[in-house]
Design goal:
By secondary structure, chain A is α/β, with parallel strands linked by helices. Chain A is about 70% helix and about 10% strand. Chain B is built from 14 helices and four strands. The chains are: A alpha/beta, B mainly alpha.
């Protein structure tokens, strides 16, 4: 049995090397993590941008820099042009010794309120109010953790798609029919098709975590990713089951991609009391386990890990008999 | 005439392939599902800003009284312990505790610990303004507000989601499907038959682009009709979506020419889709812009489609956007022709 699995696995690995699939599958997730790392400072330090013209005194410009980015424009016309651009940037100019905040009119309420409040504070001299900051833990922004969660979920799904594409390839080239007349059994085929992709998914998830967040907590992350791997096999098997060629495979990706992407997003916004509607879905538990690990350690992680593995295995077990019939293995 | 009949034969073949692969059915199904999500699952209002909580322990509770009078009593909490609990439970929450007297007010800020200094400064400015307004008459406002285009209506969140779907679902459809059509032909060997025919690269490219443009237009039309209903802006929206879709279809043809199959293209496809969708971060918070957003075609496109679907009176944006798209289409069409001829039809690269 082991030899048959090993042979098919080596054949797939050779194919992956020859067709550069291995290079892309290793390179692209790393590039993605690097892109996320690059844009993270902008997301974590989201701040307002003010556009000012030369009428605004230097002291006010310097003061505004404490509240966000400042773009200095040569004249009023350019300032208004900047305010009318697609993003929400309030403009500031001085008119008869009074500051004027220019808005387009469709900004979020807080943009107008905050701009006015900041100008008033800077123009009004020293504060009457004495401020203190209560002691707080020096924590990382949750944006970084949520970005990593989404990257790892994507990586798990892509791992599943890699399994699926390999099965579709076998169906399209009829290699699966050749295997069917040999001694290979169905479960051996699934193990051989999944092993490489699952190892790569686990390794790349850890690499992504190192790039985005550093080396802390990798063993716990590895356990959580392993608990979610049945989801990857399920995604691959759904693709292989439904699609007989590449065009159909990408169509299947479009269809199953919707719930795969939507459920974690819905889970993020859904009030805690309503989250039970998502309990049957393995990708909800994959998200929840990663959320508990990275964002909210006060909730029990092992329950979410068990649920991720359990729902994934149940979904897989439900699909296996139908897949076995279709693949005739 | 012969060229035209070759093109129509190719077109029929590609349409048949798309139909047999269930692409039209999938587009219809996706449009229905997404319309159901937009109309019934997405909320009409969503809070994307931080939650602020206030405890007023100052003499006479001036801030609490002012907030209650302004109808914002929902942010008030009874005790500092309650505020600490809320801030600890909600990673997007911050708290303000007012103490002292009108002569010497004090404010304690309760933060998450990850806020940048600009946010802390803004919070102080808000707290200072709250206090000054509550104990008034304060120093008076140092600014005047001018709106260049007042009266722009706010669009419900669920309807505001439609431009996102049009740009990231409909426009990217051609990019995904065009590439896969190429791989399908490679796998079935029909590209070899095309190589020995007298037809050049253009009929091949035009046929693929036309089929995917049809799919995108059907998808976009159904999505807009099911979510926003028939409206005068429909033609403009679909026109812009069609141009962007054509651009991405041609880009898909260009890029896929360098790959042997979907297995290796899948990763590049995902990378392009994710980079293309990054400007979505600015869509619901236009005050914040990711670096290099303005160089991605999806950034202006998102806001352009939104302006056409929900006009606010903005002028002068459409012509430059269309001209830019046309220029990009011309460049990418040239690249696609070069790649299809060299890689697919001659196989020299």
């Amino acid at each position: 049995m082991l030899r048959r699995v090993k042979n098919l696995l080596f054949k797939d690995a050779l194919f992956a090397v020859r067709e550069n699939i291995l290079v892309y599958s290793l390179l692209v997730p790393v590039v993605l993590a690097a892109v996320v790392r690059l844009v993270l400072p902008s997301l974590e330090g989201m701040e307002l941008t003010f556009a000012v013209d030369h009428s605004v005194p230097a002291a006010m410009v310097e003061g505004l820099e404490g509240y966000g980015r400042v773009e200095v424009l040569p004249d009023r016309a350019r300032l208004e042009q900047r305010v009318l651009a697609f993003d929400d940037v309030p403009g500031v100019y001085l008119d008869l010794d009074r500051h004027v905040v220019v808005l387009e009119g469709n900004e979020e309420d807080y943009v107008a309120e905050l701009s006015g409040v900041v100008i008033d504070r800077l123009a009004g001299g020293p504060d009457k109010v004495a401020f203190t900051v209560a002691p707080h833990p020096d924590i990382e922004s949750p944006v970084r953790d949520y970005a990593l969660i989404m990257l790892i979920l994507l990586n798990i799904i892509v791992g599943g798609m890699t399994i699926g594409m390999s099965v579709v390839e076998d169906r399209q080239t009829r290699a699966i029919e050749a295997l069917a007349v040999g001694p290979m059994r169905f479960h051996e085929y699934i193990v051989a098709k999944s092993a490489l992709a699952l190892i790569a998914t686990l390794a790349l998830s850890l690499v992504m975590a190192v790039i985005v967040r550093g080396t802390g907590g990798l063993p716990a992350l590895a356990v959580t990713v392993i608990a979610s791997l049945p989801l990857a096999v399920f995604v691959g098997l759904v693709m292989g089951y439904l699609a007989q060629d590449q065009l159909a495979a990408i169509a299947v990706v479009k269809v199953i991609g919707l719930p795969l992407a939507a459920i974690p997003v819905v889970a993020f916004f859904l009030p805690a009391g309503l989250r039970w509607v998502l309990y049957p879905f393995p990708n909800y538990w994959a998200f929840e386990a990663l959320r508990r690990l990275l964002v909210d350690p006060s909730l029990p992680l092992s329950t979410a890990n068990l649920a991720a593995a359990g729902t994934g295995l149940v979904a897989l077990a439900a699909l296996l008999p139908a897949a076995r019939r279709r693949f005739r293995l | 005439m012969r060229g035209r009949s070759r093109l129509s034969a190719l077109l029929r073949q590609d349409l048949l392939l798309a139909h047999r692969s269930g692409l039209f059915a999938i587009v219809l199904g996706l449009a229905v599902v997404l319309a159901l999500v937009v109309n019934f699952a997405l909320p009409t209002v969503i809070g994307l800003t931080a939650h602020e909580y206030v405890v007023d322990l100052a003499a006479g509770r001036p801030v609490a009284r002012a907030l209650e009078a302004a109808g914002r009593g929902d942010v008030l909490l009874a005790s500092v312990d309650d505020l600490k609990r809320r801030v600890a439970d909600d990673r997007s929450a911050v708290g303000l505790v007012f103490r002292g007297t009108p002569e010497s007010p004090q404010v304690e800020l309760h933060l998450q610990g990850s806020e940048p200094q600009a946010t802390v400064n803004s919070l102080e400015a808000v707290a200072s303004a709250l206090w000054n307004r509550a104990v008034g008459p304060g120093p008076g406002s140092a600014h005047r507000l001018v709106e260049l285009r007042p009266g722009s209506a706010k669009v419900p969140f669920n309807k505001d989601f439609v431009p996102i779907l049009l740009v990231f679902e409909v426009v990217l459809l051609g990019f995904m499907f065009a590439g896969v059509m190429v791989f399908q032909e490679k796998a079935e060997g029909s590209i070899k038959a095309y190589r020995v025919s007298p037809a050049g690269p253009w009929p091949y490219i035009i046929s693929k682009a036309a089929v995917n443009l049809t799919l995108s237009l059907v998808y976009g039309l159904l999505l807009v009709l099911f979510t926003l209903g028939p409206r005068p802006a429909l033609l403009g929206v679909l026109g812009l979506v069609a141009l962007a879709s054509l651009l991405m279809t041609l880009f898909g043809l260009f890029l896929s020419s360098f790959y042997t199959g979907l297995s290796d293209f899948l990763y590049v496809l995902l990378l392009v889709i994710i980079v293309f969708t990054l400007p979505a971060a600015s869509y619901f918070s236009p005050a914040f812009k990711l670096p290099l957003s303005e160089f991605m075609p999806s950034y202006p496109l998102l806001f352009g489609v939104r302006e056409l679907a929900f006009p606010t009176g903005k002028t002068g944006f459409l012509a430059p956007m269309v001209l830019t798209l046309l220029a990009e289409i011309a460049v990418v069409a040239g690249l696609a022709r070069w790649a299809v001829e060299r890689k697919l039809l001659r196989g020299v690269l």
